[in-house]
Amino acid sequence: MLALILSAALNQTAVGSDAGRDASATAAKPVQTAAEVAASRLALASMMRCVVNRSGYKVRKVLDLTVGGGGPQAPWAKLADAGCLDAVGKSLTFAPSLMRGSIYLALYTQDFGKTAPIAEFPVEPPVHYPVSEVASDGYGAIYRMAMSIADCAVRKDPLGARKVVLTEIATDDERAGIRAFVPALSGCIDAGNSLAMNSEVIKGIIAEALYRLTAIKRDNHHAQG
Q1: Which of 126, 179, 187, 203 is 20 to 30 A from 197, comparing alpha carbons?
Q2: Whole-number mean pLDDT of the chain?
Q3: What percent of the chain has pLDDT over 90?
Q4: CA 25, CA 27: separation in Å to the nearest integer?
Q5: How does DSSP classify residue 171?
């Protein structure tokens, strides 16, 4: 089986050899309306932009913490309590995985959003993603697989990845960008694996891979120049 199951907004989209069957098997009733999902995503994005602007150096330290293996979660809670909840006017609770993706969206937009697009990344060197070697817990294992797929896909289609990251959240442009990027994602899933991801997760893992690859290319360019 080779499949990537997507939920773009609340509309199920699937790709892969058994995609149609898997989509129908995994589709479930949403617990939120499309408007509620969009509002939640926009609130998180606003809060994480505030966190990056106010505490960028602390954010980068948290992002380097090992994912999985029972690592500490307290730093993520402290980020969410960094005075930026007032900026969105809500009491919000988000999983570290969603916060991580939203932070990378903010970082990429801030650091590279106005720079020239990169049309090609080299196949090597590999990027270090901070996942535990054991990563026996669900989040660590999923993070390892998700970032392997995202890293591969971003190298295949850097411009498509950039479009996904920079489009406004919960818009037709975002949905179109993700659908156009599906072939790159699908081509990076090993036979026998499948992974279910919604638009928020897809955007977040692409943002992390794109940010890391772009930063490496920038740093290499500076070192050579």
Answers
A1: 126
A2: 80
A3: 44
A4: 6
A5: S
Between the CA of residue 191 and those of 6, 16, 140, 153, what are the distances in Å? Answer: 17, 10, 21, 15
Q: How far apart are the first and last CA of the chain?
A: 46
Model pLDDT, residue 26: 40
Enumerate the domain spans of the chain: 3-24+33-224
Whether the link from the prior residue into 158 is cis, omega within 30° of 0, is no
Predicted TM-score of the model (pTM): 0.83
Residue 202 C-beta-side C-alpha neighbours within 13 Å: 33
101 by Cβ neighbours in 10 Å (0-12 / 13-18 / 19+) ranks as buried
Closest listed residue to residue 105, CA positions, set 40, 183, 169, 188: 169
Spatial separation of the C-alpha atoms in residues 225 and 222, rounded to whole Å: 5
Q: Cα angle vertex 156, ends 67, 48, to 5°?
A: 40
